[in-house]
Amino acid sequence: MIYDDLRVLDLSAGLASAYAAKLLTDLGADVVHWEPQGGDALRREDPHGALHAYLRTSQRAIGGHALDGWVDGADVVLLSDPEPNGLPAALVAALRARGSSGATDGGPLVVVEVSALGHGGPDDGLDLPEPVLQARSGALSGHGHMGRTPLTVGGRIGEYVTGAFAALGAATAWRRAEKTQRAELVDVSKLEAMQLTMLTVPTLMAHFPGGRGSTFRFVMIPGNEPTGDDRFVGITTVTAAQWRALLGAMDRADLATDDELTTMIGRFMRAQEVNGLLHGWTRAHTAEEIEAACSAARVPVALVSNGELLPGLDQLRSRDVFVQQPGAGFVRPRAPFRFHHVTDRALAPAPVAPDVDAAPWTARERAASTAASDIGERPLAGVRVLDFTAFWSGPFATAWLTAMGADVVKVESVQRPDGIRFSAAVRPAKDAEYFEKSALFHAANLSKRGITLDLSQAAGRDLARRLVATADVVVENFTPRVLDDFGFSYDAVRAIKPDVVMLRLPAFGLTGPWRDRPGFAQTMEQLTGMAWVTGYDGGPPIIAGGVVDPMVGTHVALALVAALAHRDRTGEGGLVEMPMIEVAVATTAEQVIRFSEYGELMGRRGEGGVYRCAGDDEWVALDLDSDPMPPAERAEWCASRTKEDAASALRADGVAAWPVVPGHLAVDDPQLVARRFFQSIDNPMVGRQDYPTFPMTMSAGPHTWWTAPAPTLGQHTDDVLREIGVTDDELVALRAAHVIGTTPLAPG
């Protein structure tokens, strides 16, 4: 296993930190969870504690107050705010102080704390639950239909995303701390995690060329469409080519020249017309017929699934994604990582009760290291990454590596640039450089070096092989056949660089009947149950709107940091396979678990807890669990007040609440400002912009996340190729043959 010598003491409470502990357990760590008197709250969420068992598989549980021995022997400690009842406050304070001081004496080296808002700033210590944090982050304002209540995303996805970031922070800090023997503190914010992942960079979208500084929410068209057999099929058309392919499948190629309909915003502006067109076709066919037609046209498609249907999907069954929970009667997902070169952890039953007599670990001896100054504030400095990923999930993962100091070389081609470049708000007819002005492309590719190589040409493939020889890591997220056909399978890459780490991020996996299907974040939300639990009361399922991409990217970054740790220790590279769908099902496991254990099919969360206030499209969100007022009375009470006054009064009465913040205004949140969550960067194409960073602070750095703007198409090609011996005359010839270049050969 990757981390079979890592000791993690989990002193936290709550879903986010429990999921962080689960991921570290999956990677091999020895995780010991301290439970307060009365047990972990997650045990009490359902009669058999099934979700708790899923999250605590292969861990140990302890109780009592004799924690000093456990602390002295731990490498990593997980904390949460608020802390579990009964955890000594002096111990928590000492652990925070240790992490922030960089101590080198005995005790844990990495302290990770998860809280609602992060420490520092005017609202340090304010605890808000996920639905209210969705409102404050700006995410809530962008989900649902205009004219209707903003829609809370169901399934506690924000908690899972935060947990993935906490595990990533722990693993990355451990890479450095293990070498320096200096303690570190990683301070993780749920608010920042949700702002970063639950809408598509709304603050940048508003301020980039062509952006809109106003509230705008919509349900994607096409999205979850009704079928003739009373089910829903999810159809995704991110690119113009996919929309035109869908028109072909519908036998409506006559509309392919209507350029307005090739864009999401264009279809939204003509929603009644387009929905009529779509529903006329989908209601005339069964779900299977629609799925077959879209698949044949290479349009991303998915049956909108739930906890009952998921384990029976052909692709997941063929890959044994769902396994029996040890010691229990329900099925649950396997770990979201597949390290082909490392043995999977054998699953052991979750502890049924804390062991108050368990003997602690032997204390670790810590000695100061002279390597501290050599490592610096970026723990991946010196790592070279060849990045073949596109759109959001892959680039999001490699953005973390960049921020941690890796030299990430992003590979595109002038024949097929990263498709997310073409999501700019300005169009080709008005701006010839529109492909350099996509807010999402910039956000996901800061500080990287960008090159172009046409792999369909022999010269391009030869240069790629020469670059592989210089790389520590190769990452790609095509369908499996693409790089295989170009001659860059893992075996081929390993033949060039035997100790390379190669991470492959297909939609559905390297094997199985859906191996060659394309899939996007929306597809995964439809397939894995995220859409099923999100929607208005009595209404159809609605996709969460892209959260899967950054969530998957966070898991990918964690897997890469872990694979590099294994390489450091053993000298062995390896293949890491992370299908998007298998990562996503790890975070929707509760739906499968509940149906498997109790026969309970979870339904839509609905719009509860969000109320209209005085003004135009003004709303407040509150915690339903702490609200004593009946919904009808609450609605009348809120309608007579501004959202700010309503939220303040509610909090004064002990009800967690916050005004629904328009997504583009989150950049002004005083807590985010105080924690420097946004970083200003100048870019000659789009001017000075405030870019989101990552949802944590790390006491040992980096203290500034980004060092350069995103690259223009092919900006660094000459520099990178010269590093492998390409001459200026050769560069001229390569450019003439369009092996390299700086302008797309065809519009997106």
* Helix and strand composition category: alpha/beta
Unreliably modeled segments: none
First-last Cα distance? 43 Å
Question: Helix coverage percent of residues?
Answer: 25-40%
How many helical elements? Answer: 28
Average residue pLDDT: 95
Report on the biggest sheet: 7 strands, mixed
**What share of the residues does DSSP label as strand, in percent?**
5-15%
The radius of gyration computed from the alpha-carbon positions, rounded to a whole number of angstroms, is 25 Å
The overall strand count is: 24
Strand order of the largest sheet: 3-2-1-4-5-6-24
Shape, principal axes of CA atoms:
globular
Walkthrough of the structure:
This protein is an alpha/beta fold. It has a domain at 237-299. The strands form 6 sheets. It has a 7-stranded mixed beta sheet. It has a 7-stranded mixed beta sheet with strand order 12-18-17-16-13-14-15, sandwiched between helices. A 3-stranded antiparallel beta sheet has the order 7-8-9, with helices on both faces. Helix 1 (15-26) links the parallel strand 1 and strand 2. Helix 6 (157-180) crosses helix 7 (190-197) and helix 6 (157-180) packs parallel to helix 21 (548-570). It is globular, with a radius of gyration of 25 Å. It starts with 6 loop residues before the first strand and ends in a 12-residue tail after the last helix. The mean pLDDT is 95.
